[in-house]
Amino acid sequence: MADELKTTINPAESESGIQKTPRQSEWRRMARVLFSRRLYTIGFAIVVVIMLVAIFANWISPYDPIKTDLYHRLELPSSAHWLGTDQLGRDILSRIIHGARTSLVVSISAVLLGNIVGILMGIAAAYYGGWVFAVIMRITDALMAFPSILLFILIAGLLSTSGVSGGGGIPVIILALGFGGVAGMCRMMCGLALSVKQRDYVMAARVIGMSNWRIMWTQIFPNAFPPLMVNITMGIGGMVMGEAGLSFLGIGIVPPTPSWGNMIMDGMTYLLTNPLFSLMPGTAIMLLMFGFNMFGDGLRDAVDPRLRGVF
Fold first, then answer.
1. For residue 183, which of 31, 47, 140, 171 is within the disulfide window of CB 3.0 to 4.6 Å?
2. How far apart are CA 215 and CA 224, in angstroms?
3. Helix 221-248 and helix 182-197, axial crossing angle in degrees, nearest 10
4. Model pTM score
Protein backbone atom coordinates (compact mmCIF):
# COMPACT_ATOMS: atom_id res chain seq x y z
CA MET A 1 0.00 0.00 0.00
CA ALA A 2 2.80 2.42 0.85
CA ASP A 3 4.47 1.74 -2.49
CA GLU A 4 1.22 2.51 -4.32
CA LEU A 5 0.85 5.84 -2.49
CA LYS A 6 4.38 6.84 -3.42
CA THR A 7 3.72 6.20 -7.09
CA THR A 8 0.42 8.09 -7.20
CA ILE A 9 1.33 11.22 -5.23
CA ASN A 10 3.35 13.93 -6.95
CA PRO A 11 6.17 15.17 -4.69
CA ALA A 12 5.42 18.81 -5.62
CA GLU A 13 1.81 18.30 -4.63
CA SER A 14 2.68 16.54 -1.37
CA GLU A 15 4.85 19.46 -0.23
CA SER A 16 2.30 22.20 -0.82
CA GLY A 17 -0.82 20.13 -0.33
CA ILE A 18 -2.38 21.88 -3.36
CA GLN A 19 -2.80 20.28 -6.75
CA LYS A 20 -1.31 22.48 -9.50
CA THR A 21 -3.28 23.01 -12.68
CA PRO A 22 -1.49 23.53 -15.98
CA ARG A 23 -1.26 27.20 -16.92
CA GLN A 24 -3.28 28.16 -19.96
CA SER A 25 -1.72 30.38 -22.62
CA GLU A 26 -3.31 33.83 -22.54
CA TRP A 27 -3.31 34.08 -26.34
CA ARG A 28 -5.01 30.71 -26.66
CA ARG A 29 -7.62 31.76 -24.12
CA MET A 30 -8.30 35.00 -26.01
CA ALA A 31 -8.62 33.12 -29.31
CA ARG A 32 -11.00 30.63 -27.70
CA VAL A 33 -13.20 33.42 -26.36
CA LEU A 34 -13.05 35.35 -29.64
CA PHE A 35 -14.27 32.36 -31.64
CA SER A 36 -16.60 30.97 -28.97
CA ARG A 37 -19.72 32.41 -30.61
CA ARG A 38 -20.85 32.05 -34.18
CA LEU A 39 -21.50 35.77 -34.63
CA TYR A 40 -17.95 36.61 -33.58
CA THR A 41 -16.57 34.10 -36.09
CA ILE A 42 -18.84 35.38 -38.86
CA GLY A 43 -17.82 38.97 -38.17
CA PHE A 44 -14.13 38.08 -38.24
CA ALA A 45 -14.60 36.15 -41.50
CA ILE A 46 -16.41 39.09 -43.14
CA VAL A 47 -13.63 41.49 -42.16
CA VAL A 48 -10.93 39.13 -43.49
CA VAL A 49 -12.76 38.52 -46.80
CA ILE A 50 -13.37 42.24 -47.46
CA MET A 51 -9.76 43.05 -46.59
CA LEU A 52 -8.54 40.41 -49.03
CA VAL A 53 -10.88 41.78 -51.70
CA ALA A 54 -9.49 45.28 -51.11
CA ILE A 55 -5.87 44.10 -51.24
CA PHE A 56 -6.30 42.07 -54.44
CA ALA A 57 -8.84 44.39 -56.09
CA ASN A 58 -6.69 44.89 -59.19
CA TRP A 59 -6.70 41.14 -59.88
CA ILE A 60 -10.27 40.36 -58.77
CA SER A 61 -12.25 43.09 -60.52
CA PRO A 62 -13.26 42.12 -64.07
CA TYR A 63 -13.05 45.70 -65.46
CA ASP A 64 -11.30 49.00 -64.90
CA PRO A 65 -13.46 50.82 -62.30
CA ILE A 66 -12.97 54.28 -63.81
CA LYS A 67 -13.03 53.47 -67.53
CA THR A 68 -16.21 54.77 -69.19
CA ASP A 69 -18.14 53.04 -71.97
CA LEU A 70 -21.11 55.14 -73.06
CA TYR A 71 -22.26 52.48 -75.52
CA HIS A 72 -23.08 50.16 -72.59
CA ARG A 73 -24.41 52.63 -70.04
CA LEU A 74 -27.18 51.69 -67.58
CA GLU A 75 -27.19 48.04 -68.57
CA LEU A 76 -29.04 45.55 -66.37
CA PRO A 77 -27.19 42.59 -64.80
CA SER A 78 -25.92 40.13 -67.39
CA SER A 79 -23.19 37.56 -67.89
CA ALA A 80 -20.81 40.31 -69.02
CA HIS A 81 -21.66 42.68 -66.15
CA TRP A 82 -22.96 40.75 -63.14
CA LEU A 83 -24.40 43.85 -61.44
CA GLY A 84 -24.91 45.98 -64.55
CA THR A 85 -23.29 49.28 -65.46
CA ASP A 86 -23.72 52.84 -64.22
CA GLN A 87 -24.65 56.03 -66.04
CA LEU A 88 -21.17 56.22 -67.62
CA GLY A 89 -20.96 52.56 -68.59
CA ARG A 90 -18.62 51.59 -65.75
CA ASP A 91 -18.96 48.11 -64.29
CA ILE A 92 -20.75 48.33 -60.92
CA LEU A 93 -19.15 45.18 -59.50
CA SER A 94 -15.66 46.45 -60.28
CA ARG A 95 -16.41 49.78 -58.62
CA ILE A 96 -17.75 48.04 -55.50
CA ILE A 97 -14.60 45.90 -55.29
CA HIS A 98 -12.31 48.94 -55.59
CA GLY A 99 -14.62 50.90 -53.29
CA ALA A 100 -13.74 48.40 -50.53
CA ARG A 101 -10.12 49.52 -50.80
CA THR A 102 -11.11 53.18 -50.62
CA SER A 103 -13.35 52.65 -47.58
CA LEU A 104 -10.78 50.59 -45.67
CA VAL A 105 -7.88 52.92 -46.41
CA VAL A 106 -9.88 55.96 -45.34
CA SER A 107 -11.47 54.41 -42.25
CA ILE A 108 -8.33 52.70 -40.91
CA SER A 109 -6.18 55.80 -41.53
CA ALA A 110 -8.76 58.05 -39.87
CA VAL A 111 -9.05 55.75 -36.85
CA LEU A 112 -5.27 55.61 -36.44
CA LEU A 113 -4.96 59.40 -36.74
CA GLY A 114 -7.78 60.11 -34.29
CA ASN A 115 -6.61 57.51 -31.80
CA ILE A 116 -2.99 58.61 -31.80
CA VAL A 117 -3.95 62.23 -31.13
CA GLY A 118 -6.64 61.23 -28.63
CA ILE A 119 -4.33 58.88 -26.73
CA LEU A 120 -1.62 61.55 -26.47
CA MET A 121 -4.12 64.11 -25.19
CA GLY A 122 -5.85 61.71 -22.81
CA ILE A 123 -2.76 60.29 -21.17
CA ALA A 124 -1.26 63.77 -20.76
CA ALA A 125 -4.45 65.09 -19.15
CA ALA A 126 -4.67 62.15 -16.73
CA TYR A 127 -1.01 62.07 -15.76
CA TYR A 128 -0.28 65.78 -15.30
CA GLY A 129 -3.72 66.89 -14.10
CA GLY A 130 -4.22 70.53 -13.07
CA TRP A 131 -4.50 73.08 -15.85
CA VAL A 132 -3.43 70.51 -18.48
CA PHE A 133 -6.42 68.34 -17.55
CA ALA A 134 -8.78 71.34 -17.53
CA VAL A 135 -7.71 72.66 -20.95
CA ILE A 136 -7.81 69.28 -22.70
CA MET A 137 -11.18 68.34 -21.19
CA ARG A 138 -12.74 71.66 -22.24
CA ILE A 139 -11.51 71.08 -25.80
CA THR A 140 -13.10 67.64 -25.85
CA ASP A 141 -16.32 69.07 -24.38
CA ALA A 142 -16.49 71.56 -27.24
CA LEU A 143 -15.91 68.84 -29.85
CA MET A 144 -18.45 66.47 -28.32
CA ALA A 145 -21.10 69.20 -28.29
CA PHE A 146 -21.49 68.70 -32.06
CA PRO A 147 -23.18 65.64 -33.59
CA SER A 148 -20.52 63.50 -35.22
CA ILE A 149 -21.76 63.86 -38.81
CA LEU A 150 -22.08 67.64 -38.39
CA LEU A 151 -18.55 67.80 -37.01
CA PHE A 152 -17.25 65.76 -39.95
CA ILE A 153 -18.99 68.08 -42.41
CA LEU A 154 -17.61 71.18 -40.64
CA ILE A 155 -14.00 69.94 -40.62
CA ALA A 156 -14.19 68.65 -44.20
CA GLY A 157 -15.64 71.97 -45.37
CA LEU A 158 -12.94 73.99 -43.62
CA LEU A 159 -10.16 71.80 -45.04
CA SER A 160 -11.64 71.91 -48.54
CA THR A 161 -11.94 75.69 -48.58
CA SER A 162 -8.41 76.04 -47.21
CA GLY A 163 -7.04 74.27 -50.29
CA VAL A 164 -5.71 71.11 -48.61
CA SER A 165 -5.08 68.44 -51.31
CA GLY A 166 -6.54 70.66 -53.99
CA GLY A 167 -9.77 71.25 -52.09
CA GLY A 168 -10.90 67.66 -51.53
CA GLY A 169 -10.10 63.99 -51.88
CA ILE A 170 -8.93 61.19 -49.64
CA PRO A 171 -6.47 63.26 -47.49
CA VAL A 172 -9.22 65.72 -46.59
CA ILE A 173 -11.69 63.01 -45.64
CA ILE A 174 -9.06 61.22 -43.52
CA LEU A 175 -8.25 64.43 -41.65
CA ALA A 176 -11.93 65.27 -41.15
CA LEU A 177 -12.87 61.83 -39.83
CA GLY A 178 -9.67 61.50 -37.81
CA PHE A 179 -9.95 64.80 -35.95
CA GLY A 180 -13.68 64.24 -35.53
CA GLY A 181 -12.92 61.08 -33.54
CA VAL A 182 -10.28 62.60 -31.26
CA ALA A 183 -12.66 63.62 -28.46
CA GLY A 184 -14.08 60.17 -27.79
CA MET A 185 -10.68 58.48 -27.66
CA CYS A 186 -9.26 61.27 -25.48
CA ARG A 187 -12.06 60.83 -22.93
CA MET A 188 -11.65 57.06 -22.87
CA MET A 189 -7.86 57.17 -22.56
CA CYS A 190 -8.06 59.76 -19.79
CA GLY A 191 -10.47 57.64 -17.75
CA LEU A 192 -8.36 54.49 -18.14
CA ALA A 193 -5.14 56.35 -17.34
CA LEU A 194 -6.64 57.89 -14.20
CA SER A 195 -7.46 54.42 -12.87
CA VAL A 196 -4.09 52.91 -13.80
CA LYS A 197 -2.22 55.93 -12.45
CA GLN A 198 -3.10 54.96 -8.87
CA ARG A 199 -1.74 51.40 -9.08
CA ASP A 200 1.17 50.32 -6.92
CA TYR A 201 3.53 49.60 -9.80
CA VAL A 202 3.15 53.19 -11.05
CA MET A 203 3.92 54.50 -7.56
CA ALA A 204 6.96 52.22 -7.42
CA ALA A 205 8.17 53.53 -10.80
CA ARG A 206 8.06 57.08 -9.44
CA VAL A 207 9.93 56.10 -6.29
CA ILE A 208 12.84 54.59 -8.24
CA GLY A 209 13.14 57.80 -10.27
CA MET A 210 11.64 56.75 -13.60
CA SER A 211 10.90 59.73 -15.89
CA ASN A 212 7.34 60.89 -16.53
CA TRP A 213 7.55 59.99 -20.22
CA ARG A 214 8.78 56.49 -19.44
CA ILE A 215 6.10 55.94 -16.79
CA MET A 216 3.35 56.97 -19.21
CA TRP A 217 4.47 54.71 -22.07
CA THR A 218 5.87 51.70 -20.20
CA GLN A 219 3.56 51.50 -17.18
CA ILE A 220 0.27 53.29 -17.87
CA PHE A 221 -0.32 52.87 -21.61
CA PRO A 222 0.32 49.08 -21.90
CA ASN A 223 -2.09 48.37 -19.04
CA ALA A 224 -4.79 50.60 -20.55
CA PHE A 225 -4.39 49.32 -24.11
CA PRO A 226 -6.73 46.26 -24.16
CA PRO A 227 -9.96 48.33 -23.85
CA LEU A 228 -8.54 50.79 -26.38
CA MET A 229 -8.00 47.95 -28.85
CA VAL A 230 -11.72 47.16 -28.72
CA ASN A 231 -12.61 50.82 -29.28
CA ILE A 232 -10.22 51.03 -32.24
CA THR A 233 -11.73 47.96 -33.90
CA MET A 234 -15.33 49.08 -33.46
CA GLY A 235 -14.42 52.63 -34.47
CA ILE A 236 -13.44 51.47 -37.96
CA GLY A 237 -17.08 50.55 -38.65
CA GLY A 238 -18.19 54.02 -37.62
CA MET A 239 -15.59 55.61 -39.88
CA VAL A 240 -16.81 53.51 -42.81
CA MET A 241 -20.27 54.98 -42.27
CA GLY A 242 -18.82 58.47 -41.85
CA GLU A 243 -16.89 58.25 -45.12
CA ALA A 244 -19.95 56.92 -46.95
CA GLY A 245 -22.12 59.68 -45.49
CA LEU A 246 -19.75 62.45 -46.55
CA SER A 247 -19.32 60.95 -50.02
CA PHE A 248 -23.09 60.63 -50.33
CA LEU A 249 -23.43 64.34 -49.54
CA GLY A 250 -20.85 65.19 -52.19
CA ILE A 251 -18.09 66.43 -49.87
CA GLY A 252 -16.15 63.19 -49.51
CA ILE A 253 -14.29 61.14 -52.09
CA VAL A 254 -13.94 63.03 -55.36
CA PRO A 255 -15.11 61.20 -58.54
CA PRO A 256 -14.06 59.21 -60.48
CA THR A 257 -12.43 57.46 -57.46
CA PRO A 258 -14.83 54.61 -56.57
CA SER A 259 -16.53 55.02 -53.21
CA TRP A 260 -19.54 53.24 -51.81
CA GLY A 261 -21.04 56.53 -50.65
CA ASN A 262 -20.94 58.31 -54.01
CA MET A 263 -22.17 55.11 -55.73
CA ILE A 264 -25.29 55.18 -53.56
CA MET A 265 -25.80 58.84 -54.41
CA ASP A 266 -25.38 58.18 -58.15
CA GLY A 267 -27.78 55.24 -58.04
CA MET A 268 -30.65 57.11 -56.36
CA THR A 269 -31.87 58.38 -59.72
CA TYR A 270 -32.11 54.84 -61.08
CA LEU A 271 -33.73 53.03 -58.13
CA LEU A 272 -36.71 51.97 -60.23
CA THR A 273 -34.77 50.87 -63.32
CA ASN A 274 -31.70 49.30 -61.66
CA PRO A 275 -32.03 49.08 -57.85
CA LEU A 276 -28.78 47.11 -57.55
CA PHE A 277 -26.91 50.32 -58.43
CA SER A 278 -27.58 51.66 -54.90
CA LEU A 279 -28.53 48.46 -53.11
CA MET A 280 -25.22 46.61 -53.55
CA PRO A 281 -22.85 49.31 -52.24
CA GLY A 282 -25.27 49.85 -49.36
CA THR A 283 -25.15 46.13 -48.61
CA ALA A 284 -21.34 46.25 -48.70
CA ILE A 285 -21.34 49.06 -46.12
CA MET A 286 -23.75 47.11 -43.92
CA LEU A 287 -21.64 43.93 -44.09
CA LEU A 288 -18.39 45.73 -43.29
CA MET A 289 -19.90 47.56 -40.32
CA PHE A 290 -21.50 44.34 -39.07
CA GLY A 291 -18.18 42.51 -39.38
CA PHE A 292 -16.18 45.08 -37.44
CA ASN A 293 -18.85 45.45 -34.75
CA MET A 294 -19.05 41.69 -34.18
CA PHE A 295 -15.26 41.42 -34.22
CA GLY A 296 -15.08 44.26 -31.70
CA ASP A 297 -17.63 42.53 -29.45
CA GLY A 298 -15.51 39.39 -29.56
CA LEU A 299 -12.36 41.32 -28.67
CA ARG A 300 -14.19 42.98 -25.78
CA ASP A 301 -15.02 39.58 -24.32
CA ALA A 302 -11.54 38.24 -25.06
CA VAL A 303 -9.75 41.00 -23.13
CA ASP A 304 -12.28 41.06 -20.26
CA PRO A 305 -10.34 39.91 -17.14
CA ARG A 306 -13.58 38.63 -15.58
CA LEU A 307 -13.71 35.89 -18.22
CA ARG A 308 -10.24 34.55 -17.50
CA GLY A 309 -10.48 30.90 -16.62
CA VAL A 310 -14.08 30.65 -17.87
CA PHE A 311 -13.27 29.43 -21.39
1. 140
2. 13
3. 170
4. 0.82
